[in-house]
Automatic annotation (TrEMBL):
One of its GO terms (molecular function) is serine-type endopeptidase activity. Residues 667-771 form the Subtilisin-like protease fibronectin type-III domain. GO terms for biological process: proteolysis; system development. PROSITE patterns: SUBTILASE, SUBTILASE_SER. Residues 204-234 are annotated as: Disordered. Belongs to the peptidase S8 family. Residues 1-20 form the signal peptide. It comes from the Eukaryota. This is Subtilisin-like protease SBT1.2. It comes from Brassica carinata.
Length: 776
């Protein structure tokens, strides 16, 4: 008990030594009324924002404090307002001022790559390929909010790139180890936003943290990886220490990239994120890619949702990671209907790392271990599993493994608690020579690979049960590792990633989320030269590429594809571009089988509309368009208050008046989500589709009905006479009498509604359907 007591006492002394006033302050984002007349009385927007602070902050003159030092950011585009350091009482005072819409405490979010373009079919031959039709994304600008960028990476080489678009208003912000010369025609802009992070984190933490560049330079690799996935240049000799070798390209290799560093070692603060969105709008980006987020929160409290609504109003497509909290139901985040929410799927590429037990049994695993020291692992070694006690030895925490137990042996390590590669370092430090990393029940058969520091492989949960049973029942159990390099096309893909967050959305259940899945498992993309491929500080190896997994990786795939469609159709709205991807998404894998979610077919809450298919998305036939005013009406249908809608959309509206003008309104979303509440047995929705294909097209409807539901569509045939013509249809959903689902609250069912081009049967415009029964 003494060490713990001493630790608490030490922290207490540190707190006492700080001023009480500093401890009481925290960052708040203050949102102001967008049409305030009082702003005209001030020489600048900053002066106007400062006037609110002066009214709320008490006694600052006596303290000789300049109130302007409290302001972190003065926002102009993402919202009308500012962020500042305030005490709780000062925040309450501000909240009561008549021109203040909302006062929100700063939230911290977390961040959530060579073959995937081939898997998606982007490299097809001839002038009809996606890259040919879209000119590889030329002329578009992808803004990436993340941990920054390593500009020297070959993925940001600008050889062959066109000139920077004349509309570009951004800068290449100088900072630590970063100058304006680090930008070029590929990486056209870079900025960093640290004020929110800096005031929330004590300098006392810094000695224990890895080095962070106070600039747009990437210290952790995540931002370099995502930016290169979205718009990286072609690199002909890419691999991870020999594995996954090939030509690396981003999804939109002709697009320009602008980087906004908002994430630091302690996370991504909403005040910094909002400042980056604010500036990106002014910089004139075309696409915003945000591989960050957390758990779902209400739209009126969601900084990303609020800031990106203004981006959408400016014609910017916004793509966000859905989160890594799967397979938990209702874990999907970033669910605003003006945002494309992306889940993660697998590729059909594997990196075999097989465990051959001494009894001859083979346990399949995967690894990107490069081969150094492989002879030790390929001869039979004794296997040990050090479990029990309170040191966390089953997880192979550093310092937890007794040397006398693991010296010269192969060690079994359970996933969880610490990083996967860090476990290998713990084994190495204790004298172990190889590792078998095993999935626990929560991970099931997920196969995220790593570039391990020692010979090691990852096996699934079923194999782990066999392995542990073998070790338990065998005296001096032995095994060897057999590494198989890179294997493509012999496994099913895509499948839903175990970690990919699932719907339905808690904050926004009337819109089906996620929208799509995209490659997000074992993605190889660019990596900074200050880090080893594991990202661990004691990894001295250096590479230009490494492997990562997460919805952070699937998000930039869709961001890049969004840029391709934007380049091919520059007049399309963000909603039309998203519609093109959703209505053409795949429900079947490369073998023609249904996409799987573990042992079962994937449902709509796992894959949304399906797996993105850019080859089809570049020619969708029909699109579902949405204007910003439609989102306002949609929020009214959710029962949001006037102040909530003002906070989200910056529009002061009367929902009664809005809905009277649009009776029976339903958001023109490409997916269909129906909720039957108590006593309701029939629901009707309306949709509008715009012809973006052949001038004279005829589409007929095909419905795959949901369990216990009758679906009626009128009309059943849509006849278009010209391009850009919009036609409407209605869909009635009727509960079947006596259906089992009618009596079960919370029952979910799904189906599909597809419009088939009568003159081109391969052109199908499909909408997923989800039906929820509440309080029945």
């Amino acid at each position: 008990m003494e060490p713990k007591t001493l630790f608490v006492f030490t922290i207490f002394l540190l707190f006492v030594s700080s001023s009480s006033e500093t401890l009481k302050k925290q960052t708040y984002v203050i949102q102001l009324h967008p049409n305030s007349q009082s702003a005209k009385a001030f020489p600048s927007k900053l002066d106007w924002h400062l006037s609110f602070l002066q009214e709320a902050v008490l006694g600052i003159e006596e303290e000789n404090e300049d109130p302007s030092t409290r302001i972190l950011y003065s926002y102009a585009s993402a919202i009308e307002g500012f962020s500042a350091q305030l005490t709780e009482s000062e925040a309450k005072t501000l909240k009561n001022l008549p021109e203040v819409v909302a006062v929100r405490p700063d939230h911290v979010l977390q961040v959530q790559t060579t073959y995937s373009y081939k898997f998606l079919g982007l490299n097809g031959p001839g002038p009809s390929s996606v890259w040919s039709k879209s000119r590889s994304g030329q002329g578009t600008i992808i803004g990436v909010l993340d941990t920054g960028v390593w500009p020297e990476s070959p993925s940001f080489d600008d050889t062959g790139m066109p000139s920077v678009p004349s509309k570009w208003k951004g800068v290449c912000q100088e900072g630590e180890s970063f100058t304006s010369s680090n930008c070029n025609k590929k990486l056209i802009g870079a900025r960093f936003f640290i004020r929110g992070h800096r005031v929330a984190n004590s300098p006392l933490d810094s000695p224990n943290m890895p080095r962070e560049y106070i600039s747009a330079r990437d210290s952790t690799g995540h931002g370099t990886h995502t930016a290169s996935t979205a718009g990286g240049s072609s690199v002909s000799t890419a691999s991870v220490l020999g594995n996954g070798a090939g030509v690396a390209r981003g999804m939109a290799p002709g697009a320009h990239v602008a980087v906004y560093k908002v994430c630091w070692f302690n996370g991504c603060y909403s005040s910094d994120i909002l400042a980056a969105i604010d500036v990106a709008i002014q910089d004139k980006v075309d696409v915003l890619s945000l591989s960050l987020g957390g758990f779902p929160i209400p739209l009126y409290d969601d900084t990303i949702a609020i800031g990106t609504f203004r981006a959408t109003e400016h014609g910017i497509s916004v793509v966000c990671a859905g989160g890594n909290n799967g397979p938990l139901a209702s874990s999907v985040a970033n669910t605003a209907p003006w945002v494309s929410t992306i889940g993660a799927g697998t590729l059909d590429r594997k990196f075999p790392g097989v465990v051959r037990l001494a009894n001859g049994k083979l346990l399949y695993g995967e690894s990107l271990y490069p081969g150094k020291g492989i002879n030790k692992a390929e001869r039979e070694l004794e296997i040990v599993y050090v479990a029990g006690g309170d040191k966390g030895s089953e997880f192979c925490l550093r310092g937890s493994l007794p040397r006398e137990s693991v010296q010269g042996k192969m060690v079994i390590c359970d996933r969880g608690v610490n990083g996967r590669s860090e476990k290998g370092q713990a084994v190495k430090e204790a004298g172990g020579v190889a590792m078998i990393l095993v999935n626990t029940e929560i991970n099931q058969e997920e196969d995220s690979v790593d570039v391990h520091l020692i010979p090691a492989t990852l096996i699934g949960y079923e194999e782990s049960v066999v392995l542990k049973g073998y070790v338990r029942d065998t005296v001096r159990a032995k095994a060897r590792l057999i590494f198989g390099g890179t294997v493509i096309g012999r496994s099913r893909g895509p499948e839903v990633a175990q970690f990919s967050a699932r719907g339905p959305s808690l904050a926004n259940p009337s819109v089906l989320k996620p929208d799509l899945i995209a490659p997000g498992v074992n993605i190889i993309a660019a990596w900074p030269q200050n880090l080893g491929p594991t990202g661990l500080p004691y990894d001295s190896r250096r590479v230009n590429f490494t492997v990562m997994s997460g919805t952070s990786m699937s998000c930039p795939h869709v961001s890049g594809i969004t840029a391709l469609i934007r380049s091919a159709y520059p007049s399309w709205s963000p909603a039309a571009i998203r519609s093109a991807m959703m209505t053409t998404a795949d429900l079947y894998d490369r073998r023609g089988k249904e996409i799987r979610d573990g042992e079962k077919p994937a449902g709509v809450f796992a894959i949304g509309a399906g797996h993105v298919n850019p080859v089809k998305a570049i020619n969708p036939g029909l699109v579902y368009n949405i204007q910003p005013v439609d989102y306002v009406a949609y929020l009214c249908t959710l029962g949001f208050t006037r102040s909530d809608i003002l906070a989200i959309t910056h529009r002061n509206v009367s929902c009664g008046a809005v809905l009277r003008k649009r009776p029976g309104f339903s958001l023109n979303y490409p997916s269909i989500s129906v909720i039957f509440r108590r006593g309701r047995t029939k629901e009707m929705i309306t949709r509008r589709v715009t012809n973006v294909g052949s001038p004279k097209s005829i589409y007929t409807v095909n419905v795959k009905a949901t369990m216990g539901i009758n679906v009626i569509v009128k009309p059943k045939r849509l006849v278009f006479s010209h391009v850009d013509q919009t036609l409407s249809y209605r869909v009635w959903f009727v509960l079947k009498k006596g259906s089992k689902g009618e009596k079960v609250a919370g029952t979910f069912a799904d189906g599909q509604l597809t419009w088939v081009n009568s003159r081109n049967l391969m052109q199908r415009v499909r909408s997923p359907i989800s039906v929820t029964l509440k309080n029945h």
